């Protein structure tokens, strides 16, 4: 069923396990992620980014499809809008039925990020929807990798108190869109932030982090683990191999199935890992 983010994130946090949050680019992804979560009987976050909405040209068709996948799932599934810089898009996702949004004001001047985040929180909370926000920009969103940004524990505590956000994305050494998994996380900082703020923490750019790196981050206090690029890497590799071996195939179902199968297996492996730390 479709559930809200706060309940599943809080329960993961209290159990000290990770909550897998995977980006839906195509409908096939949402279907594969749900199958993986059902196989393990664990909750899942299906997230749709503002960029993915832009790719599809509109929120509604892909958004409705995600909601249908969540409602039909045998495990708790959150429909979450990811990296929305557009407040109007946050509103439209909530009106469509999304149970959670990430308002990303991390590129704004600090004061403006705080004010707009607080407004989004007020609007969403009135409608029973949770909000994730980002403090200290996690690099790589514009193609430039900058793993040096850091969120200070004091700033994080004040930001959460000022804005009322339900989850906080922090900069601790990861960077978005990495296709290799060598990012080094600052686990001591994760520990300090986790002690300073009462809400579950979110790791962005987890594709750049190794399996053991993610496990250490979860042990240090990270809860929601966002993975996108890594799944595109395994999907594309599988499709490429399939097409190279079968150059006569023209039916996209055949090569998409090849990609979806490895994505499902990889998500199962990751979810199992997050729940075994
Ligand atoms: O919000 C989405 C994530 O932070 C995904 O980042 O593509 O580097 O895994 P990634
Ligand atoms: Zn992100």
Please give a handful of descriptors for the protein shown.
alpha/beta, eight-stranded parallel beta barrel, globular, TIM Barrel, binds glyceraldehyde-3-phosphate, 277 residues, 8 strands, binds zinc ion
CATH topology: TIM Barrel
User: Numbering strands along the chain, what is their spatial order in the largest sheet?
Assistant: 1-2-3-4-5-6-7-8
Based on CA atoms alone, the radius of gyration comes out at: 18 Å
Structural class: alpha/beta
| CATH superfamily (homologous) name | Aldolase class I
Helix content: 40-55%
Number of domains: 1
Shape: globular
Mean pLDDT: 96
What ligands does this structure carry?
glyceraldehyde-3-phosphate, zinc ion
Poorly predicted segments: none
Distance between the termini: 26 Å
Q: How many alpha or pi helices? A: 11
Named CATH architecture: Alpha-Beta Barrel
Annotation, overall tally of beta strands:
8
As a percent range, the share of strand residues is 15-25%
The major pleated sheet works out as: 8 strands, parallel, barrel
Give the class-level CATH name.
Alpha Beta
- Helices and strands, in order, run as HEHEHHEHEHEHEHEHEHH
General description of the model:
The protein is of the alpha/beta class and 277 residues long. It has a single domain, classed as Aldolase class I (TIM Barrel, Alpha-Beta Barrel), CATH 3.20.20. Helices cover 51% and strands 15% of the residues. Strands 1-2-3-4-5-6-7-8 form an 8-stranded parallel beta barrel, surrounded by 11 helices. Helix 5 links the parallel strand 3 and strand 4. The radius of gyration is 18 Å and the shape is globular. The two termini are 26 Å apart. The mean pLDDT is 96.
């Amino acid at each position: 069923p479709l559930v809200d983010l706060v309940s599943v994130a809080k329960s993961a946090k209290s159990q000290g396990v990770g909550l897998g949050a995977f980006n839906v680019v195509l409908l096939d992804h949402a279907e594969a992620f749900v199958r993986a979560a059902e196989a393990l009987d664990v909750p899942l976050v299906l997230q749709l980014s503002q960029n993915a909405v832009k790719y599809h040209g509109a929120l509604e068709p892909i958004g409705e499809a995600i909601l249908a996948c969540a409602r039909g799932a045998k495990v708790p599934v959150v429909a979450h809008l990811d990296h929305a810089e557009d407040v109007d898009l946050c509103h439209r996702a909530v009106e469509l039925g999304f149970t959670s949004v990430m308002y990303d004001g991390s590129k704004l001047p600090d004061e403006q990020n705080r004010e707009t985040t607080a407004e989004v929180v007020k609007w969403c909370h009135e409608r029973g929807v949770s909000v994730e926000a980002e403090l200290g920009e996690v690099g790589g969103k514009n193609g430039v990798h900058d793993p040096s940004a850091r969120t200070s524990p004091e700033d994080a505590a004040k930001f959460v108190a000022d804005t009322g956000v339900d989850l906080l994305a922090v900069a601790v050494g990861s960077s978005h869109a990495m296709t290799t998994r060598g990012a080094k996380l600052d686990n001591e900082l994760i520990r300090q932030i986790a002690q300073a703020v009462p809400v579950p923490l979110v790791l962005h750019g987890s594709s750049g982090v190794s399996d053991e790196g993610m496990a250490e981050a979860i042990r240090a206090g990270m809860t929601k683990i966002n993975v996108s690029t890594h799944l595109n890497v395994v999907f594309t590799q599988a499709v490429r191999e399939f097409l190279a071996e079968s150059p006569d195939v023209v039916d996209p179902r055949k090569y998409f199935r090849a990609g979806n199968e490895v994505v499902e297996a990889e998500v199962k492996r990751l979810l199992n890992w997050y729940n075994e730390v």
